[in-house]
Amino acid sequence: MKRVLSLLVLAATVSFAQPMLSPEVSAMVTEAKKEVNGINAENLSKQIDEGKVVVIDVRDPNEWEQGTIKSDKLVKLSRGFLEVKYPKAILEKYSKDDNFVVYCGIEPRSVLAAQTMKKLGFKNVSYLEAGFKSWEGKGLPISK
């Protein structure tokens, strides 16, 4: 019984864990949030259903294997390659005027990626609040 309780506490801690960000990176994320808006999972789901949004997954390939947000307009573009690969990955199919929502596992990478996209001239960019963990936790559709 004690072991089961310990495992439950560990699972809860991991599922609600925040990333370990340095003070400098935390400050960068805070500043980026002043430039880009967040959207919650329920509103993103509605936009996907209406075909009004392009979803950008900036997680790493090993994270994509765990599943992605189910969308007909999904672009997988790891955060580390955003600036280099966005012309081919995004602009061959979409316009800088389209509506984009960026997501990562929890949130920080997507906030910074959304800010970068705005600096690159994308007009309508937001990030998924609390990331893929929130989406998955609400039982919203994923693809594997």
Question: How would you describe what is shown here?
Answer:
- There is one protein chain.
- The chain has 7 helices and 7 strands; from the N terminus they run H-H-E-H-E-H-E-E-H-E-H-E-H-E.
- The protein has helices spanning 2-15, 23-33, 41-49, 61-64, 82-89, 108-119, 131-137, and strands spanning 37-39, 54-57, 68-69, 74-76, 99-103, 124-128, 142-143.
- Helix 2 packs across helix 6.
- The model is unreliable at 1-17 (pLDDT under 50).
- The strands form 2 sheets. The protein has a 5-stranded parallel beta sheet with strand order 1-6-5-2-4. A two-stranded antiparallel ribbon has the order 3-7.
- The termini are far apart.
- Helix 6 links the parallel strand 5 (99-103) and strand 6 (124-128).
- By secondary structure, the chain is α/β, with parallel strands linked by helices.
Shape estimate: globular
Task: Please give the radius of gyration in angstroms.
Answer: 16 Å
Helix tally equals: 7
The chain-level structural class is alpha/beta
Specify the oligomeric state: single chain
* Strand order in space, largest sheet: 1-6-5-2-4
**Mean of the pLDDT scores?**
89
| Helix fraction bin | 40-55%
Number of separate strands:
7
SSE succession: HHEHEHEEHEHEHE
End-to-end span in angstroms?
A: 34 Å
